[in-house]
Amino acid sequence: MTGWDELTSTALVGTDRRPYPGGDLLEAAAVEVARRRAGRRAETPSDSAHASTEHSGSADHDTSAEHSGGTDDRDGPIDAVGPSDPSSPGGPEDAIDPGDAEDGIDLGGANHATGPEGAGDSGGRGSVGGSGGSGREAAPREEREAVGRRAAERLGRLLGGEHERLIPEWLAAAAATGRRVPPYVLPELLERGRRDRSIRVHLGVLAGQRGRWLAGLNPAWAYLLEEPTGETWELGGAADRRAHLSALRAADPGEARRLLEGTWERETPDDRAGFVEVLADGLSMEDEPFLEQALDDRRREVRQAAANLLTRLPASRLSRRMAERVRACVTISGDVIAVEAPAACDKEMERDGVRPKPPRGIGERAWWLQQIIARAPLSVWGRSPDELLAMKIPDWDAEVKAAWVRAAVLQKDPEWARAMFGWDPIADLLEALPPEEQQELAARFVRGHDLDSQLIMVLGGVSSLWREGLATAVLNKIVKVHTTQPWNLGELVKLAGEHIDPALFELAEDYSPAEPVQQVAALLRFRADMYKELAR
To answer: Which of 317, 327, 328, 323 lies closest to 293 in space, CA to CA?
Structure first.
């Protein structure tokens, strides 16, 4: 019987019935998984025992330490157990196993057939770069505990295609626990992150030291090295420094701005644009001098970010300049709003964030008009939005109202957002409203609107988990549509299952026996179980 046969046989029947002669079964299995992925020969039990003894001090493979606190072995942190078929070819797992370096295994022969230096290819899910042989540095010891076994298994199911749209939610919830993923999922998770930027935000922390070690070996995964890891302002990369600035901004807005001012001239253009956006949290007139100065930055993205924030400060110099431009274009007499669009876009307008070149399908003057109205304080109109919407605009009517929508979004004005949602119900307007009002407005829209792409987009704009009122409105819509257009329910059912508070799964189970409602209930229970596992 080969070493692998001995391992699998013992795993199947249990160590009580078949004692494993190689020492620690889990550690030996982890070593053998790594060897098989690296193209090494299968080990005999004595080889495995030797490897287990040699590397018993390695981080995350000391199972006695892992369970010394009485942790349930069925749901403890997983660092040693790999997928059920470790010998199957294909996929990024075959390039290198994340536990290999930690276990001291020489991977010099693994997928290094591309040249004498063993360099991997530079794109796609290619070979791992770097020199072969024992000269490769081992992965640093892990500093964070891994998530529990059941949580890791559920992540494996998600990565395998079961409810894969829940992957971002799982990653966010896992990151909130301060733990990391087990190493055997890293290749597949990093490969997915290469293809899907939306899941990268938490990978810097969740991938742990071995994930970053892998990213340093494979150019296709190098994006991970730019994600936040928890380092400080002085030592971290761009993402770490932005995360540090965000945390400081939430605690002490003035100190965060002063920190940024102190290093501003040394920051790269890309970093400056990102750092300016952080100032949106806790924005006040104390930030105005710094943001006004940022309007002279050489990088357009920096100027735009600064202009967007200054637009939210009605007393800022930019807001006053925009108000003067609106007054030069608009005259209100009785119930008529007369508008004359700007004839040109000068350098001062460009400095204040007005883009001179319009998108395809929009004329220049219409484009300039929309931008100056959107950036002028809404108080410049002197009337409520409901009054203004009832007035006549003989010329440029659509452009003015579109600009009001944009102004409500940019300035996050609840009164204007509420009014403009009635004229043009777009999801962006919901961001200006508190969470409870978002849900109430969305629920009314669901009850009075047919199922179409606009309804889906509005629901997608609700920022928090759907509570009972919105959940009930959506479930009722599903039941009604199921009787007339069951083929049209796919996206609404998925959205409901992904956004309703998972604690409401019993509400969905009892609401209707209709199949699509029960699909929603099943997905809610799946998510409820997911959160329970991550809380252990």
So the answer is: 317
133 with 106: CB under 8 angstroms? yes
Structural tokens at position 19? 């004692």
- Is residue 416 within 8 A of residue 386, CB to CB? The reply is no
Query: In this prediction, what percent of the chain has a pLDDT beyond 70?
Result: 74
- The rounded distance, in Å, linking the Cα atoms of 346 and 236 is 40
Residues 239-261: what's their mean pLDDT?
A: 91
In this prediction the pTM is 0.72
Plot region of 220 (φ>0 → left; ψ -120 to 50 → alpha; else → beta): alpha
Looking at the DSSP bridge assignments, the partners of residue 231 are none
- Which amino acid makes up residue 524? L
Query: Residue 30 to residues 64, 108, 265: CA-CA distances in angstroms?
Result: 15, 18, 49
What would the 3-class secondary structure string for 38-65 be?
A: CCCCCCCHHHHHHHHHHCCCCCCCCHHH
> Which tokens hold the place of 309?
């924030």
Separation between Cα atoms, residue 415 and residue 313, nearest integer Å: 16
Cα 513–chain centre separation: 34
Retrieve residue 470's tokens. Answer: 């919105």
Return the structure tokens found at 82: 């790999």
Residue 137 or residue 380, greater confidence: 380
Beta bridge partners of 77: 148
Tokens representing 21 are: 């002669």
Contacts with 466 (C-beta within 8 Å, 6 or more apart), sequence order: 439, 474, 496, 499, 500, 501
Cα 433 to chain centroid, rounded: 22
Distance from C-alpha of 202 to C-alpha of 450, rounded to nearest angstrom: 37
Opening angle at CA 250, ends 246 and 256, nearest 5: 60
End-to-end CA distance of the chain: 39
pLDDT score recorded for residue 86 = 35
Q: How confident is the model at residue 30 (pLDDT cuts 50, 70, 90)?
A: low
Q: 332, 328, 333, 360: which is closest to 344 by C-alpha? A: 328
140-153: pLDDT as tens digits: 999 899 999 999 99
Q: Report the alpha-carbon distance of residue 390 to residue 369 in Å, rounded.
A: 20
Look at residue 521 and tell me whether its pLDDT is greater than 60.
yes
State the DSSP H helix or E strand holding residue 336, giving kind and residue range, or none if neither.
Answer: strand 336-339
